[in-house]
Amino acid sequence: MNNAIEFQGVSYRPGRDFEINALTLTVPSGAVYGFLGPNGSGKTTTIKLLMGFHRPQSGEIVVLDRKVPEEMPEVLAHTGYVPERPHLYPTLTVSEAVRHHGAFYRTWDERWVDQLFDRFELAPDRRISRLSKGELGKLTLLLALGQRPELLVLDEPTEGLDPVVRRELMSVLLEYVTDRSATVFISSHLVHELERFCSWIGIMDHGRLVTELPMEQFKNGIKRLRVINPEQSAPEEPFEIMFRESVNGGAPGEMWLVRGWRSDMASFFDRGGATLRDVVDLDLEDGFVELLRAFRAEMVRK
Q1: I need a surface site. Which of 41, 71, 203, 288 has the fewest CB within 10 A?
Q2: At what angle do helices 163-180 and 110-120 cross, to 10 degrees?
Q3: Virtual CA dihedral for 196, 197, 199, 202, nearest 10 degrees?
Q4: What distance in Å separates the CA atoms of residue 279 and residue 261, rounded to the nearest whole number?
Q5: Which contiguous run of DSSP H or E holds residue 166?
């Protein structure tokens, strides 16, 4: 199994104002795939398609070599899921909720769950309705991990949690992934948090996938260039120009957002009258914002 998740040309329109449009997305097995996008971009809708809650109107979804939603029971048997808004019976105690959840999985690991109880310092007799937000976050991750899943699908799992709890949850998650070679598909608006541990990044906007690529390529290959006296149509550039705009002040110039940059490509600007003034490294948040800006500008042009 080379890929844990594959979307091929998936379209889904829940109403007049929004649609997932011909989405093709690939999550390699063993990857920690960070799924980014502004509010309303389609991240949660994509996850609901992945989990079989919605049926695509066209295209194909394959998860763990099984078709979704046709083979959803087999997919769920090997998938741990933390929804954006957990639905747990508030009158149950923590231990009752865990026993109820574990009864559905043949692979439920009681010894592992006991270790997580101790690690998270959860009180077994505390009612769900009395849990703090941090305790509820710990419990939902415990429920997702208790079956020893091959795939973890996490929709904003640390939203609203304080930094100490977020770090604790991410630490347990990474230990599990390292130990079991599991795949993680995680949606989050905490961009810097994803930058620390994701091996792949996918960005959504307006129901479309803007880009997906390994984190190292994202960090090393996407740059902002300050170009003085640029040619209006650069011939056969060795990198992809995603966006260019005029900048005011000083010599006439442009700011370019490029993908596929390497340091030896600076010699490209020696061919004409243009001068490369600056090469600016982008962190994940800067790159995320710039890619969205370039994508939206391209949509306007179309």
Answers
A1: 71
A2: 150
A3: -70
A4: 10
A5: helix 163-180
The CA-to-CA distance between both ends of the chain, in Å, stands at 38
Spatial contact of 226 and 277, defined as CB atoms under 8 Å apart: yes
State which H helix or E strand residue 13 sits in: strand 3-15
- Give the Cα separation of 219 and 215 in Å (integer): 6
User: For the segment 84-135, what is each residue's pLDDT rounded down to a tens digit?
Assistant: 888 899 999 999 999 999 999 999 999 999 999 999 999 999 999 999 999 9
**How far, rounded to the nearest angstrom, does the alpha carbon of residue 232 sit from its chain's CA centroid?**
36
The residue among 64, 59, 79 whose CA lies nearest residue 13 is 59
Sole residue written with tokens 């939206």: 296
CA atoms within 13 Å, Cβ hemisphere of 192: 3
Interaxial angle between packed helices 94-102 and 110-120, expressed in degrees from 0 to 180 and rounded to the nearest 10: 150
Residue 263 class from Cβ within 10 Å (0-12 exposed, 13-18 middle, 19+ buried)?
exposed
Phi and psi torsions of 178, nearest 5° = -65, -40
Residue type, 117: F
Backbone phi, then psi, for 227, in 5-degree steps? -120, 125
Q: Which tens digit of pLDDT belongs to each residue from 178-213? A: 999 999 999 987 787 788 889 999 999 999 999 999
Cβ-based burial of 248 (10 A; exposed 0-12, middle 13-18, buried ≥19) = exposed
Taking CB atoms within 8 Å and a gap of at least 24, the contacts of 177-180 are 177/32, 177/152, 180/148, 180/150
